[in-house]
Amino acid sequence: MSSRRENFKNPFSRPWMTETGAAAAAGGSGSIGLKGVIAGGITGGIEICITFPTEYVKTQLQLDEKGGTKKYSGIFDCVKKTVKGHGFFGLYRGLSVLLYGSIPKSAVRFGVFEQAKLYMVNEDGTLSNTGKLGCGLAAGVAEAIFAVTPMETVKVKFINDMRMEKPRFKGFFHGVRTIVREEGIGGVYKGATATIMKQGSNQAIRFFVMESLRDWYKGGDRDKPVPKYIVGLFGGVAGAASVFGNTPIDVVKTRMQGLEAAKYKSTWDCFIKTWKHEGPLAFYKGTVPRLSRVVFDVAITFTIYDSIMDVFNYVWK
């Protein structure tokens, strides 16, 4: 019996998962799916609480159009007016939406990425450049469809509602009920095309950069550990790359999900009208606050996720 066990070869083994790092840590044992969901949820909650004010400011600036309705002259003016009018916690309006959606988003993202790896990994346990982009793209598209689009739509509507003299939404559930009652279930799926484009390109860029930097650091030695501060540094670089790569898509997505989205016939129509009335620079509105948020976001996500998975793999066999 013992000899059978010794000769048994797991047909589903994934040798690359023995490496140290976020992607590697995500597949250490048979319980990895549940571990990933819990670790991702905890990581997402911590990360959002730390970085949400920059996401709030970014969204406000992206919704702020030229003309008589323009409210803010810049980042600091937005922060100043928000705190003056609604207090410090006004910068956290819409936070509950992201908290509620963090667990499924993380579960879908990491789950699909790991599953895609099964089909795209090379025999030596590595991913080609095409594989890295493909796995990241699959993860981004999946999370956009199943978690990010409804979550982001409600978040943007919450922040947009706060810009009104008399906000209508009294809380998360009241806001969701109001949106669904007035617009139907499709009301929380506004900007789905733009969101899929954004998340797909986001994760394709981030995972590609992260995996490439990790491979570069290891220098061909797959057993070489990657220190957590290096993981965080690589995550920050990956986050910055995704910001410069897809902020125009993020601007269109935000406007397609706002309360004034009805004036756009489609994602393409939103792009054309924004270009025509505000020029190409409008597609980089909110880049600075988004950059500060995303760099810390991705750095924190990979670092905390790695750390939590290390603990899970130690105490949860």
UniProtKB/TrEMBL annotation:
List the subcellular locations: Mitochondrion membrane
Which molecular function term from Gene Ontology is one that the record holds? citrate secondary active transmembrane transporter activity
Which domain of life does the UniProt lineage start with? Eukaryota
GO cellular component labels: mitochondrial membrane
* Start-end of each Solcar repeat: 31-119, 130-216, 226-311
Q: What family is reported?
A: Belongs to the mitochondrial carrier (TC 2.A.29) family.
Q: Please state what the protein is called.
A: Citrate transport protein
Q: Which organism is it from?
A: Euphydryas editha
